[in-house]
Amino acid sequence: MPNIDNSQFESKVALITGGNSGIGKETALAFAQRGANVVIAARREAESVETLDLITATGARAEFVKTDVSDEAQVEAMVAQAVKVFGRLDFAFNNAAITGNATPFDEYPREVWDQVISVNLTGTWLCMQSEIRHMKTNGGGSIVNTTSISAHRGSPNLPAYSVSKWGVIGMTKAAAKGYGRYGIRVNAVSPGHTETPMLGLNDGEERLNALIEQYPLGRIGQPNDIAEAVIWLSSDSASFITGVSLPVEGGIIA
């Protein structure tokens, strides 16, 4: 990524869903380290308080809003709180997601399907709607959504996850075309396997080594790899980029 002038983030406001751990946590810190005020939204409060402490240690202001992104009223309250506390919304990173249990396609439970779609796809849609409504009146902004390599190559035992992330790419493109005239850019990042709690590497070195073997760059991703891509897409350095899904995946889908 090119060298980014951090002054463009100073005193601006970034909202990160799923901001309490993993990629979301690292991205929240990345915005804070560049001078932005940060709002993190998540369902688990204890982890979020720890993240808030790390953010405020950088000198940035931070706010936590307990939010289930599949609930429209909670999403509206989340964005309203961000604007109430900080007066504006400049950047949004829609990152909250769940994978669902890995189950063969023909045995996949309907209730798991509905849950994954409601969080990953409908939740991202609800967040984008509310964020866009504010950004339209605020002179523009940047939205980045989290999709996945599963959207590009499919995961046979995670069908709802694959479908939801493919849908996020479609929404990203649709919104980018619809709101560019308002100064709103909408992009996505497609991470590969990234070393976060969500990846679940508790079963030891064997699975990790099996994953690493799939990657031309000889490693899986780190949260900071994704965070830096989000920062770049949000920055003026990417001012002529909208509607893309940027692979950040070490060449696994090359």
Structural commentary:
The chain has one domain: Rossmann fold (3-Layer(aba) Sandwich), CATH 3.40.50. α1 runs parallel beside α2 (45-56), α3 (72-86) packs parallel to α4 (110-137) and α4 (110-137) packs parallel to α6. The protein is α/β, with parallel strands linked by helices and 254 residues long. The model has no long low-confidence stretch (mean pLDDT 93). The chain has a 7-stranded parallel sheet with strand order 3-2-1-4-5-6-7, with helices on both faces. α2 (45-56) links the parallel β2 (37-42) and β3 (62-66). The protein has 8 helices and 7 strands; from the N terminus they run βαβαβαβαβααβααβ. The protein has helices spanning 22-33, 45-56, 72-86, 110-137, 150-153, 159-179, 205-212, 223-234; strands at residues 13-17, 37-42, 62-66, 91-94, 141-146, 184-191, 245-248.
Key terms for this structure?
254 residues; Rossmann fold; seven-stranded parallel sheet
Write down the overall mean pLDDT: 93
- The number of helices is 8
The global form is: globular
Report the helical percentage. 40-55%
Beta-strand segment tally: 7
Instruction: Report strand %.
Output: 5-15%
Q: Give the total of domains.
A: 1
Question: In summary, what is this structure?
Answer:
The chain is α/β, with parallel strands linked by helices.
SSE blueprint and pairings:
Elements: E1 13-17, H1 22-33, E2 37-42, H2 45-56, E3 62-66, H3 72-86, E4 91-94, H4 110-137, E5 141-146, H5 150-153, H6 159-179, E6 184-191, H7 205-212, H8 223-234, E7 245-248
Helix pairs in contact: 1-2, 1-8, 3-4, 4-6
